Amino acid sequence: MKPTAPTEAKAVAQNLSFYYGNGAQALKSINLTLAMNCVTALIGPSGCGKSTFLRCFNRMHDLYPGNRYEGQIVINPDSINILSPEIDPIEVRMRISMVFQKPNPFPKSIYENVAYGLRVRGVRQRALIDDKVEEALRGAALWDEVKDRLHALAFNLSGGQQQRLCIARALATDPEILLFDEPTSALDPIATDSIENLIGQLKNKVTILIVTHNMHQAARVSDFTAFMHMGELVEFGATDVIFTTPKQKRTEDYITGRYG
Ligand SMILES: Nc1ncnc2c1ncn2[C@@H]1O[C@H](COP(=O)(O)OP(=O)(O)OP(=O)(O)O)[C@@H](O)[C@H]1O
C-alpha cells in the first residue's frame, strides 16, 4: 500500500547545497524529507544532480578533496546532522548503505562478501557472522539460490544474483537507510523485476532512496517522487500525484517525455 503523505521522517535534507572541488555548484538549497519505511525516487534529466544528492547521504563526497556541503541532513530518531564534520563518515556508512549501478562484488566468496561489513565492524564470533550472513541473504531473496555454495567466488553468480548479493552485503550491517543508484540499469528485465520486488519488501525494514532514469520503475517502486532539474528540487510529492497531476510545467514536460 502506498501512503499519500509523508508520515514519520527518517531523514530531512535542509537547505542542502553541494559544490564539487572545481567550484561547480551541483545542488541548490534542497529541502526534502524521506518518509520512514517508504521508497522515495529521484528523477530528472541527466546531470540534474540526482547522484550528487544521493551520495551526500553516505558522505561519499568526502572521499575527494575540495568537495563542500552546505546545509544539513538530519536523521532520526537521534536527530543528528550526518554532514557535521564531527560525525565520522564510516559510522554514517554503517547506518546508510549504498547499492551501485553495476553489481560490484568483491573478489571474494559469496559468504565473505556479505560478512565484510561485519568484519570491518570488528565482529569476530563465527556463529554470529553465520547467522547474519544467512539473514542478509534471505533479506536479499538470494539464500535459496546460494546456500549450497556459500564459499564459491561471487563472480560466478549471474548479474542479477550479483546485484542481490550487493544488496545482502549492504543489509548485513542492519542499515537504516538504503541508497540505490540506478540499481537495475545493467540488468535484464527478469533480474530487474526481482530487484523491484525486493525493494518493495525491503521497505518494511529500511527507508529507501532510489535514483532511476526509468519512469515506469519510479512509478512502480516508489511511494514519493522528487523531480530535480539543474541542481534544484522542482517538485516533490506522492508518486501517483507526480505522475498524474504534477503542478510544475517542468515536471510535466519531463514525465511526458518532452525533454531529457
Ligand atoms: N566529480 C565531479 N566534479 C565536478 N562536477 C561534477 C562531478 N560529478 C558530477 N558533476 C557535475 O554535477 C552535476 C550533477 O551531476 P550528477 O551526476 O549528480 O547528475 P545526475 O542527475 O545523477 O546525472 P545522470 O542521470 O546522468 O547520472 C552535473 O553538472 C555534473 O557534470
End-to-end Cα distance: 30 Å
Specify the number of helices: 10
Percent strand: 15-25%
Query: What ligand species are in this complex?
Result: adenosine-5'-triphosphate
Mean pLDDT: 94
At the third CATH level, what is the topology name? Answer: Rossmann fold
Q: Give me the CATH architecture, please.
A: 3-Layer(aba) Sandwich
CATH superfamily grouping = P-loop containing nucleotide triphosphate hydrolases
Number of strands: 10
Described by strand count, sense and barrel closure, the largest sheet is:
6 strands, mixed
> In terms of per-residue confidence, which ranges show pLDDT below 50 for 5 or more consecutive residues?
none
Strand order, sheet with most strands: 6-7-8-3-9-10
Structural class: alpha/beta
| Helix percentage | 25-40%
Order of SSEs: EEEHEEHEHHHHEHEHEEHH
CATH class: Alpha Beta
Q: Judging from the principal axes of the Cα atoms, what is the shape?
A: globular
Number of domains: 1
Radius of gyration: 18 Å
